[in-house]
Write a structure and sequence with these properties.
about 325 residues
Amino acid sequence: MLVLVGGSVLIWVGILALYAQSANVGSPTFNMIELGELAKEGAFSHEFQRWVFPLFMIGFGILAGLWPFHTWSPDGHVAAPTGVSMLHAGVLMKLGAFGIIRVGVILLPEGASAWMPILIILGTVNVVYGAISAISQHDLKYVIGYSSVSHMGYVIMGIATLHPVGVTGAVLQMFSHGIMTALMFAMVGSIYERTHIRDTNVLNGLIKRMGTASCFFAIAGLASLGLPGLSGFIAEFMVFVGVFRTYLPLAVLAVIGAAITAVYMLRLLAKTFFGEADPRWDDLPDSSPIEKAVGAVFVAILIVVGVWPAPLVRVINIGVDSVLQGL
């Protein structure tokens, strides 16, 4: 909580700095459209942008789980009820990435260009550190929590490329990760409601008793590791293309992070869901009709976007092109 408050303070300082600077060149305003026009007119000096942009980068980055300010996120997932965890991963963390684009990049383009090399390095650390941390976890929520830190690293890397393909991939990853992670948390909540356990050392062979929940979780997990045909693949692929074109050595590290993701996710699926069934779970009921309906909608989105991403990519491109034109 204190970390999030600190991030909010940084954002407010940045907003007040923009307000004060707008007063120096004309009429003071908080209106983002008017501030954007001032940015296009060159009202914000290079030095001003260089010291104000990091306020937004760190402030919104904290919300997005940016390393090393990410520690609140996995713990928050574990402490929160299922619905809050779904909202946290599916929406809240994406607002941080959106803020970097909408406020930082659009209003302070020169500052963004100056700080993006630092941001992409931090995003790469997110990818690798989050994946390595997820390997050592035994609580299902912690596994997904650190997986989210890793996947938000791809979002941050894509934004930091300031390349049309990379930024489009970042926005698509925001959408894809929100769906897949919300689905995983929903299934973990369903499992915990019936077993009151989230320890992967205790849970095993669940597909034999909770087939629907296990299949839904498996599909979300495969999307998480970037299986072709699911939404995670095209999103990560576009991010990789953007990073390869701008920061090749970091792209190699990002690919290694994806390989680590495959290791912990496949190990989790093999043991917890497809391993030998434990007699303790013989009487577990499967998902309720409502849980099946919600899960089916999420799975359908992951598959449709994975197989036919073009319509969504075209919509994203419209916004990305308008952002990058100001650089």
